[in-house]
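Risk register update: the risk of archive-format incompatibility is retired. Evidence:
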Amino acid sequence: MSLFAMGFLLIIIQPSTGQFPRACANAESLWSKECCPVWDGDGSPCGELSRRGSCQNILLSQAPLGPQFPFSGVDDREDWPSVFYNRTCRCEGNFMGFNCGECKFGFSGQECTERRLNIRRNIFQLTTSEKDKFLAYLNLAKNTLVQDYVIATGTYTQMNNGSNPMFRDINLYDLFVWMHYYASRDTLLGGSRIWRDIDFAHEAPGFLPWHRVFLLMWEREIQKLTGDENFTIPYWDWRDAEDCAVCTDEYMGDRNPTNPNLLSPASIFSSWQVICTHSEEYNSQQALCNATSEGPILRNPGNNDKSRTPRLPSSAEVEFCLSLTQYESGSMDKMANYSFRNTLEGFADPQTAIANISQSGLHNALHIYMNGSMSQVQGSANDPIFVLHHSFVDSIFERWLRKHRPMLEVFPAAHAPIGHNRENYMVPFIPLYRNGEFFKSSRELGYDYEYLQEPALGSFQDYFIPYLEQARQIWPWLVGAAVIGGVITAVLTGLILSCQKKRKGNSPEIQPLLIETEDYNNISYQSNF
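Archived output:
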């Protein structure tokens, strides 16, 4: 199918995975606070009859949060998703989805037992037909209504605590734009008051896991929409780039010759309409973005504020960022120093790792450089370059994970900004995902990057290297424990020998050299470490 033929298909309806399940967007579900839809495969909630899952109470993290958000009970996203639902499907084994009807990332097959590993590739290494297919898939998603999900157009309070549901349909591409907006929007405090220092997807530890889930879900939906289970999001390697190499009509759209802020009419993306870009208007009205069209994509790459972002990131800056050993540090927000996350996100200098919010490095630099729709956080996903950019950012995250092999405990369990502790559920995803679940190698999640692929290791190495690496990290503790254990053993041995000598001196009886079987079975050996 040609690019334009697919692009101008009539709008159709397609199942999806994303935000509020349509089956739960009603007064009854909101009143009962239960979202456990039926799986069509067996007609039972959560596929319980097929042992896929069951309807369970949500287990919320009780770990303390950081001081950045000094309120409680004023934002629907607090303790997500408990304001809307406190019972959802808990899936078993490799099953996943709001009704346990899908497979976890990296698995496929009717029983979700088949492992898969898809490869994300450099967009410039795609063949012409592969590149055209990717562009066509994007355009198809923009023109396909979602069947399984809807978006909220009002807060829970505005819905009269659920008795007046406020939801609407949305196309597949814009569903993800809206989710990015919803996670990063300001808190509406009533009247004309708002709170800006809040973001469930940025400026804190969850930045990288959140966008990893976002891309995996987006990838999954394109696979379902097109039937192309091998589809992966390509990446744009922008290291040392002198300009926006993907900003051509062959790829993501050239400049409009009569208006440099718009896209060339020869690009399919020139007809796209953006949503969720008028944040100040929503704030003044104490309203949510309702996905109304707000004009064309804006982009004027390179004509940005050079004092903030003088150029695109360099290879040397990426390598320095990868050398940082701490995933997170200090306040765990945009003021964190020597934090890999904060440096990669772009709030810390990519040459010193010292926080400097007057400059934009690495991830942020690309957004600012695009000088348009991508430069405003809440609406940045409107520009399809967003997925290429974040695919490459995710690959840098993956390089760091492979280089440092951190244990899960490295991801902060407490005192991070709201929504960013290890066990917090990510806003606004349903099914539910915790931040810590995606702090692991992409290969465990079913995908890899073409430029990161490694030669296959022998079975011995492949099995033992992760354990040896973990042992290396805790080696000082093991040595210390061994020393302490040796001292305790020596003391106990001395006491035992002393007691034996004393007993020999007081009794003429000869002690047996061997313990009888019945006595041996009564002895308990314990090792406290």
